[in-house]
Every structure is written in structure tokens, then in C-alpha cells.
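Please, structure for the following, as C-alpha cells.
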Amino acid sequence: MDWKKVRLLHEGSLQFAITPYLMFSVSVAAGISMLVAGLYYHFHRDRVKQLVHRQKLAKMILENKWYESEQVQHDGLFKDLPSGRPKERIRHFPKMYYRLKDGLIHIHVEITLGKYQDQLLHLEKKLESGLYCELVDKELKDSYLEYTLLYDTIANRISIEEVTAKDGRLKLMKSVYWEYDKLPHMLIAGGTGGGKPTSSSHSLKP
């Protein structure tokens, strides 16, 4: 094909023809794009999940209106014409930090004694259902509250043979340990047939 002679316009009108070469090129490009997207999601699944989680957290704050705003009147394009509708400007947006490390999600929420402090102090149910995680710890620190959630509980499960005790810790999941030297009391709970006696007897073996 001589690209120097290719013209998109012919006698003032746009000429476009669907050829087998064009269909093949589009199909190959679409296939490669889908393959790259699939490989990226497969090998960087956690990174994609982090972006989704951050979007959900921001959406939660926006839809519940847990922020402070004010109405601002903007001047129109011309001074002598009436200005449009007032627009909302956010004055304060609650600070929330998200981090995924070792299979655990750490969410830090700033506590400022503001109007929506009570809502931010009780996010357990929203976080567990919205992010599909399990809350494992909630700790109030200086000026912020930290929620710790177990991410992807199904993928973090281990077999009974992997439940081992070492250095004062009993491995319960891939990223969850029971430090029995520091906290000697533990409550084992679960449904009927969940394997509580088996887990207990296996853990007590010398």
C-alpha cells in the first residue's frame, strides 16, 4: 500500500471503506488490549482492589455528606449578565488514609471533634460490608482512629496442617497469628461442624 496516495477526503466528502485488512487490524488491537488488561488484573489484582477500595471510601463520604461545604456564587462570563446558579465548594473533607500490607487493610480516620465525628467512630459495619473484609482490630490513637481489617479471607485461609506454633505465636491464617504469650486467653467460636475440636486438638499437640 502506498500511504502517500491515501486520501480521507474525496470530492469534499469523507470516504471510508470497511476492508478485511481494517477488520483484522481492529480485531487484533482489541484482542491485545483485552489480553493486556487481563494479565494486569491477574498479576496486579491487589493494586486494582486498592483503587476500588479508595473509590468506595470517597463515595461513602460524599454520598453521606460527611464534609463541610459552602455555596459560592460565581460571576458570569459577562459582568452585565446575571450569574448562574451558586456552586458548592468543599471547605473541609475528612482525612482518611488507606494502606494494604501483609493481607491486612489499615484505615486511619482523622478525629477532629467535628460535626461527623460519631459517624467516623463507628464505621465497622460499613467497612466490612462495603469492602468485603472482616474487622480484626479497632484502636483509638492520638487525633485519629485506626481500623484494621482482614482482606480476602478466603484466599488467606490455611489447612489444618499449616496451623503451627512458633516463637510464641500460633498461625491461624496466612496473615493472622495468635500471640499466646502476650494474650493467653482465646475464645474459639464457630458453627456446628466447623472444626472447632479438630483445630483445638491439633493446636495442643506437643
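The chain has a mean pLDDT of 79. The first helix runs from residue 20 to 43.
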